[in-house]
């Protein structure tokens, strides 16, 4: 299904948010320096002076790879972005490359949502499409799915995305264990109550599918 | 280059991993290199096990007037991923798929099918064992082995046959991690004083950086991912390893070669050439 939200002009939807700075996306704070460059940093580090400075957009790959404890981050929208860095970039194109590396796929989802063309896919449809080792995930019960999504996708320790998909085609909520704000694009999932560009989730991710497999396999044993 | 790809997007599809950051590294690095060259209107990656997912990729290429998207699987062979998972997740109905908005998605061949694989494997062998006479050397190409509709073993056999026909090495052999001839039997399989092992894998992931060194006997147990070692300053292996009275040279996965960026671009060019020749033939009435 396609979400119905106010249409934006195709021309401006992509980077209009970079014209109003500072802005916040996920755990990242984007601002302009006095010299006109763009400066990205962790939202917790806004007032820090001791940041390691990087100037290449591709540096985002390494920054986003491990958390503060040096543990690999398979889910880039998990609320564990590393602290202590600043990324200074010359233009909007470089900012876009960096944000696509920090939060892969999230800007296209946001742009589509602003245009009113974001197609969402229910959890059941994603699971029923699977083949091979993940085919078994279609057997997850509604109760198991409710619990799994409520735990795996929660903003506090799970994932900072704003869920836009339903559990099934009838429109059942993804999980009754999550607060209403988890589905609200205007809500700051970091809990700071600041205006944010949401990390929209249009379809259950492959990490959730892999977790669903564990749940189904576990209950079968 | 004959074709202009300025209004085309490139989508590199990789496997990725939820446990090993090195799995997606080659795809990201080839994408960065191709982006730098400014050939395409947009260059993106997507993964099966990492973000962005293939489903996320359906939302890409909506800006900048992209008319065509070329999908290049960064996989060693045709198989389950190129034939089942990628078409399903990217909603591709064949080699060419037209979306509702008129954008055309072209499904190219995987990088491992490219004719330059043979030369890249030879180059890897030369780089890892410089100055060693080929007549005193056995070259072992190591692949994964049988898997769910996985043709990587067939692709590896094809490469070994091509290299063997050159008649330069004392021996050229296929080996696998999980089926005979096993890579762990390398000392029994060869008789030459020098043995070079090149992993026919896309990335220095779990297999080529952790499993195979243990199977070769150059390490006792898996000791961390490639990037973890790099951070510890241990990424460079100390070739040759002296084992069983031989000199053993171990290369990193073939897919980490920077020239794979050229291979990706050439898979797109090859697709575009085929398309043009088909349309030319239609225009000339040669195809019914």
From TrEMBL, chain B:
Specify the signal sequence span: none
**Keywords from the UniProt entry:** Lyase, Metal-binding
The organism of origin for this protein: uncultured Chthoniobacterales bacterium
Is Lyase included in the keywords of this UniProt record? yes
GO MF terms on file?
Answer: lyase activity; metal ion binding
Matching InterPro entries: CbiX-like, Sirohydro_Cobaltochel/CbiX
Bilayer-spanning residue ranges: none
- Mind telling me what this protein is named? Cobalamin biosynthesis protein CbiX
């Amino acid at each position: 299904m396609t979400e119905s939200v106010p249409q934006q002009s195709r021309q401006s939807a992509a980077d209009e948010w970079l014209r109003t700075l500072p802005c916040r996306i996920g755990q990242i704070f984007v601002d302009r320096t006095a010299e006109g460059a763009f400066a990205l940093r962790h939202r917790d580090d806004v007032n820090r002076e001791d940041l390691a400075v990087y100037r290449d957009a591709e540096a985002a790959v390494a920054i986003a790879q491990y958390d503060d404890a040096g543990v690999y981050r398979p889910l880039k929208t998990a609320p564990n972005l590393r602290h202590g860095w600043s990324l200074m970039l010359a233009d909007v194109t470089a900012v876009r490359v960096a944000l696509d590396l920090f939060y892969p796929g999230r800007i296209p989802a946001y742009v589509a949502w602003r245009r009113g063309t974001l197609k969402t896919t229910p959890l059941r449809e994603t699971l029923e499409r699977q083949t091979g080792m993940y085919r078994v995930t279609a057997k997850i019960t509604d109760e198991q799915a409710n619990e799994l999504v409520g735990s795996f996708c929660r903003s506090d320790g799970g994932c900072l995305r704003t869920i836009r998909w339903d559990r099934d085609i009838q429109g059942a909520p993804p999980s009754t264990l999550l607060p209403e704000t988890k589905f609200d694009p205007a809500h700051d999932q970091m809990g700071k109550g600041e205006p944010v560009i949401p990390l929209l989730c249009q379809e259950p991710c492959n990490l959730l599918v892999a977790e669903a497999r564990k749940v189904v396999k576990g209950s079968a044993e | 280059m004959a074709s202009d790809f300025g209004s085309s997007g490139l989508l590199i599809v990789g496997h990725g991993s939820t446990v090993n950051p090195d799995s997606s590294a080659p795809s990201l690095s080839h994408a960065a290199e191709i982006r730098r060259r400014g050939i395409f209107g947009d260059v993106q990656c997507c993964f099966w096990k990492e973000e962005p997912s293939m489903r996320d990729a359906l939302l890409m290429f909506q800006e900048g007037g992209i008319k065509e998207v070329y999908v290049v699987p960064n996989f060693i062979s045709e198989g389950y991923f190129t034939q089942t998972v990628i078409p399903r997740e990217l909603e591709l109905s064949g080699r060419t798929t037209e979306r509702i908005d008129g954008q055309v998605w072209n499904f190219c061949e995987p990088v491992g099918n490219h004719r330059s694989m043979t030369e890249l494997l030879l180059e890897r062998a030369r780089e890892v064992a410089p100055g060693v006479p080929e007549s005193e050397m056995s070259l072992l190409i190591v692949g994964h082995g049988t898997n769910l509709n996985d043709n990587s073993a067939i692709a590896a056999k094809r490469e070994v046959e091509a290299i063997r026909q050159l008649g330069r090495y004392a021996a050229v052999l296929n080996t696998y991690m999980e089926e005979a001839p096993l890579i762990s039997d390398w000392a029994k399989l060869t008789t030459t004083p020098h043995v070079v092992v090149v992993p026919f894998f896309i990335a220095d992931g779990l297999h080529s950086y952790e499993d195979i060194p243990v199977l070769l006997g150059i390490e006792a147990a898996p000791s961390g991912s490639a990037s973890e070692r790099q951070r510890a300053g241990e990424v460079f292996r100390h070739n040759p390893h002296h084992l069983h009275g031989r000199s053993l040279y171990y290369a990193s996965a073939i897919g980490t070669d920077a020239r794979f960026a050229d291979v990706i671009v050439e898979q797109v060019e090859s697709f575009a050439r085929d398309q043009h020749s088909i349309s030319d033939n239609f225009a000339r009435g040669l195809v019914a």
